[in-house]
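Input (structure):
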């Protein structure tokens, strides 16, 4: 029988810390960025395509408002960086950690995320549309008004997150764990409930959200 990983057991990035070369960037080109520790770089509003980051760390990088296409991140950790209002179409993330980031309004269109963890991020109005999420964990993230339209979600967990007014109505929920998160105003339809894992207080909330009266 094939073992199925729980979202808490997603594969972390493999980064050889002793081999990283400290650097700063002022642009992102169509090339491979590998074995780098990219620090304190101002990349606000830049545009680019087909850049690849592998076995690297991005720390305190300002990518707010950037417009990147087909960006690939493999074995990457992003620390305390600004991704607000960035638009990353057809991005591919594999074994990626995003920690302490500002990601308000980040848009990931037609992206694929596998073995990805977001921790302590502020990502209100996050938009992950027409994408595929497999083995993704959001932990202690603020995700108010986030939109997961047309996105397939398998082994996705939201742990101690603020999911106020998050929209799941057009998502394909295969297996999603909401336990321990705030789901006030969650937008969901009855057909999606089979793929959810929830705790008892959330069950009562969802029944109310779907229009039932509890007596």
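Output (sequence):
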């Amino acid at each position: 029988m094939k073992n199925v990983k729980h979202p808490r057991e997603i594969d972390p990035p493999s980064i050889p810390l002793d081999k990283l070369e400290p650097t700063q960037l002022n642009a992102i080109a169509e090339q491979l960025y590998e074995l780098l520790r990219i620090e304190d770089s101002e990349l606000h509003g830049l545009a680019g395509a087909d850049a690849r980051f592998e076995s690297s760390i991005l720390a305190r990088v300002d990518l707010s408002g950037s417009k990147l296409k087909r960006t690939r991140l493999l074995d990457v950790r992003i620390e305390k960086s600004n991704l607000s209002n960035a638009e990353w179409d057809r991005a591919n993330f594999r074994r990626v950690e995003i920690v302490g980031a500002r990601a308000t309004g980040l848009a990931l269109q037609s992206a694929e995320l596998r073995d990805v963890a977001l921790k302590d991020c502020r990502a209100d109005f996050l938009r992950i549309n027409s994408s595929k999420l497999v083995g993704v964990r959001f932990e202690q993230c603020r995700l108010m008004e986030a939109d997961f339209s047309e996105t397939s979600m398998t082994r996705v967990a939201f742990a101690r997150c603020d999911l106020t007014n998050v929209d799941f109505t057009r998502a394909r929920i295969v297996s999603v764990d909401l336990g321990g998160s705030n789901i006030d105003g969650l937008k969901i339809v009855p057909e999606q409930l089979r793929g959810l894992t929830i705790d008892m207080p959330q069950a009562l909330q969802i029944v109310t959200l779907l229009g039932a009266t509890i007596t």
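Notes: Residues 7-209 form a domain with the Pectate Lyase C-like fold (CATH 2.160.20.80). The helical segments are 200-209.
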